[in-house]
Design brief:
The protein has helices spanning 27-40, 73-79, 139-152, 163-178, and strands at residues 5-6, 45-47, 57-61, 83-95, 99-105, 108-117, 120-126, 132-138, 187-189, 194-195. The chain is of the alpha+beta class and 196 residues long.
Length: 196
Amino acid sequence: MILPIVAYGDPVLKKMGTPITKEYPNLDTLIENMFETMYNAFGVGLAAPQIGLPIRLFIIDTTPFSEDDDLTLEERTALKDFKRVFINAKITNEQGDVWAFNEGCLSIPDIREDVFRKPKLTIEYEDENFNKHVEDYEGLVARVIQHEYDHIEGILFTDKLSALKKRLIKGRLANISKGNINVEYRMRFPDQKKKR
């Protein structure tokens, strides 16, 4: 089932996600619905707060990025078929010199800005079967993980922008929260409490 994506301005996007257990109700269905919702919106990641659930769950499928001809063969290979479910994730280490990448977000449509992040990370998480993993990632895979991880920490990519950039997009953000935007996928807007 395709779920509405929560738009910028909804308080759930600023909440720290709470951990979940195997007993979380209908988790398999929730994960399936999240993938369907993400694919419908042409995203490569989706976090539970973006569908209104303040829990520590996010999903990623970077396969669409692997078709970018501007990337090296090594980068495209790392992105191809990278599909994961991250439950109760914790980034334990980030390293390297920060680099800029133009990020967007399904909850903040039509706004893209350069965000600076470190290129390598170590993350601990549980998969959909609650098996524990500790893994290292770098490059664009790490970037997508960092972006989705921020969502379960109550952080949006716009929070990482300079004061000047924030002022420049303030009106556009206000329009998103009011639903004054055309999107190709279902959204829930906080100021209008309506779905489209």
